[in-house]
Amino acid sequence: MSLRRWVPTLKEKLGADKLETKNTKREVLTNKHGTSLFLSCCRACQLQLARKMVKGRQGERIRLYVRGTILGYKRSKSNQYPNTSLIQIEGVNTKEEVGWYAGKRMAYIYKAKVKKNGSHYRCIWGKVTRPHGNSGVVRAKFKSNLPPRSMGARIQVRSRSVEFTTSL
């Protein structure tokens, strides 16, 4: 199948100058900077390839969460309450700053040995309930209690409930 019928529109989008034919299934499109793009057998495959090459990754990755650290469970001298966890959110140092995070969702993401739903990564969701003390620590409740090995681990505090993707 010849790709020449839709190449002019691709040329305009990518700023390409010339078209060279390598063989019947694949053609090479070269832009003004000398970068060549390989055109595959069908339009759908090629548009997907072109989008990846044009879009690329410009600048820094945008992070949609604030990092936090799990300090431990809420506790007294002799009792501990594993249904409530203490979290230190990065950049939060006072009780007043915690107010903005009240009700926000957080995710503890960990790696498991056995694959589930096509991924080794799993997630326990929780919610910031209230401040704990005067130093910016928050109390949080999770869907299931955090495991003891999570102490000291990273946590993601979301500004709103953004779906978790396994591409970490």
From TrEMBL:
Keyword Phosphoprotein attached: no
InterPro entries, A to Z: Ribosomal_eL33, Ribosomal_eL33_CS, Ribosomal_eL33_sf, Transl_B-barrel_sf
A Pfam match: Ribosomal_L35Ae
Keywords: Ribonucleoprotein, Ribosomal protein
Keyword check for Ribonucleoprotein: yes
GO molecular function: mRNA binding; structural constituent of ribosome
One annotated GO biological process: translation
SUPFAM superfamilies: Translation proteins
Gene Ontology terms: cellular component: ribonucleoprotein complex; ribosome
PANTHER family in UniProt: 60S RIBOSOMAL PROTEIN L35A (PTHR10902)
Similarity annotation: Belongs to the eukaryotic ribosomal protein eL33 family.
HAMAP family per the UniProt record, alphabetical: Ribosomal_eL33 (MF_00573)
Protein name (record): 60S ribosomal protein L35a
